[in-house]
Amino acid sequence: QLQENQDEIENMMNAIFKGVFVHRYRDAIAEIRAICIEEIGIWMKMYSDAFLNDSYLKYVGWTMHDKQGEVRLKCLTALQGLYYNKELNSKLELFTSRFKDRIVSMTLDKEYDVAVQAIKLLTLVLQSSEEVLTAEDCENVYHLVYSAHRPVAVAAGEFLYKKLFSRRDAEDDGLLKRRGRQSPNANLVKTLVFFFLESELHEHAAYLVDSMWDCATDLLKDWECMNSLLLEEPLNGEEPLTDRQESALIEIMLCTIRQAAECHPPVGRGTGKRVGSK
Fold first, then answer.
1. Do 184 and 128 lie in a common domain?
2. Care to name a GO molecular-function term for this sequence (predicted)?
3. Going by C-beta distance under 8 Å and a sequence separation of 6 or more, which residues neighbour residue 23?
4. What pLDDT was estimated at residue 274?
């Protein structure tokens, strides 16, 4: 009897899906399309056994190309709810490989809100599997830390931090207590300097610092470590910083001090609603 009841309910759900959703997810009214995508995201989350498969996911993938920003936004937030749950990752692999390029391209969406949520979704994808995103995919997000729009830049800063600065090795307590040049932050500070120099936007250190301020405050405020990298002799086997790298570190350090003292984003960075031309 339980099995019969379940079959009956699933038949009803199927009839509703085919009779309502399949027609209305491409309704002429954007608001109705948005409701459809929001709801299918909820179904996939609540009843993943029945709904979280490519027969249903494809509708979200197709709708990511919708002309209206509010509908594209619902696609991204629905997917975030799924990628956030690591138990569902295996069911999302085919979808990820098929629609990953579209999600990456949405980080440059003309609607800022959509671009922000696309970056946040890629951050969740990154956490679910290191191998999914190529170096090129990641670089497309990295350069957005220099965006003039702060929410986009902050989202990109968090992606950059998770990819390049999250410590994967569990350091022992002794190492964590070390300070200055011997602290775990020393290598992270160097990574920041290398990233800044490679990006070749040398007048924009303030933008880079502001982008990572929320997620990497402890690192950016470790002035003791930065000072020792500039003033102390390298440890055995350690490569000394070049003059160019030292200059970049001084520039970054000044920007972190200014950010800490003034508590506001650099000049030219705001929170306007639309992106300019690509």
1. no
2. chromatin binding
3. none
4. 56
